[in-house]
């Protein structure tokens, strides 16, 4: 099963971005999504941003992950 997690792009330098996923930051490759900009929400899978999504969809997905026990607050 493949799972992509939504995050908000908070920095971008060339094709490397930092995303915020519920308060946890991760560096991801933007090579597959070069149009991603700071402030965009993206789906992250295996260290790559693979698709842009809107903020509402990102928040809904994170809430569902929490309900299913797939994601704990602050990765704890």
Automatic annotation (TrEMBL):
<dbReference type="GO" id="GO:0005506">
    <property type="term" value="F:iron ion binding"/>
</dbReference>
<dbReference type="InterPro" id="IPR001109">
    <property type="entry name" value="Hydrogenase_HupF/HypC"/>
</dbReference>
<dbReference type="Pfam" id="PF01455">
    <property type="entry name" value="HupF_HypC"/>
</dbReference>
<dbReference type="GO" id="GO:0051604">
    <property type="term" value="P:protein maturation"/>
</dbReference>
<protein>
    <submittedName>
        <fullName>Hydrogenase maturation factor HybG</fullName>
    </submittedName>
</protein>
<dbReference type="InterPro" id="IPR019812">
    <property type="entry name" value="Hydgase_assmbl_chp_CS"/>
</dbReference>
<comment type="similarity">
    <text>Belongs to the HupF/HypC family.</text>
</comment>
<dbReference type="GO" id="GO:1902670">
    <property type="term" value="F:carbon dioxide binding"/>
</dbReference>
């Amino acid at each position: 099963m493949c799972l992509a997690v939504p995050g908000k792009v908070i920095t971008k330098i060339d094709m490397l971005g930092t995303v915020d996923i519920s308060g946890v930051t991760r560096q991801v490759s933007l090579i597959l999504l070069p149009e991603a900009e700071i402030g965009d929400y993206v789906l992250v899978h295996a260290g790559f941003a693979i698709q842009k999504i809107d903020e509402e969809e990102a928040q809904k997905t994170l809430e569902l992950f929490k309900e299913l026990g797939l994601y704990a607050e602050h990765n704890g």
